[in-house]
Design goal:
disordered N terminus; mainly alpha; 56% helix; globular; 156 residues; Ribonuclease iii, N-terminal Endonuclease Domain, Chain A
Length: 156
Amino acid sequence: MATNVKREVDVKESQLPNLPEVPNHVRHRVFRHSGMGDNNERLANLGAVILPVIVTEWLMDTKPNATSGDLTIQRSLRVDKKVISKWSRLYGLPDHLVCAANEVNVRASVAAQCQVFYAYIGAVRQTEDEDEEQKEYGWTAVCAFVRQILEVTPIQ
């Protein structure tokens, strides 16, 4: 079992991979806070489910000898709300949130920061991959994006 685990994420903005493109007809929903109609909640629900799956696969690939318990601990550290909110802020996603009220407070909240990141992940997943034969709808793109973030954001 892992001991002495530190929870700080150290990453420079210049190391982050570029955000994958999201079509405009989906993009507007990513940034609509839950207090508004046609908002980002459904996309965020999708992203919140997808992210731990991708993190688990990445951990299994990068730590082939880790025990199930170690993988669980490492995954929980990487999908922690403090980590997700930091990624969201590094990309400036909260700055684009459209809110019904209290925009400054909403954008500063960890919950909204996480939600907009999850919504972006969900939106990428809903985007068709370039390889039309696969019909994976963004799975390749979202996996590559999250794996690149994981590579440059070690848990210290």
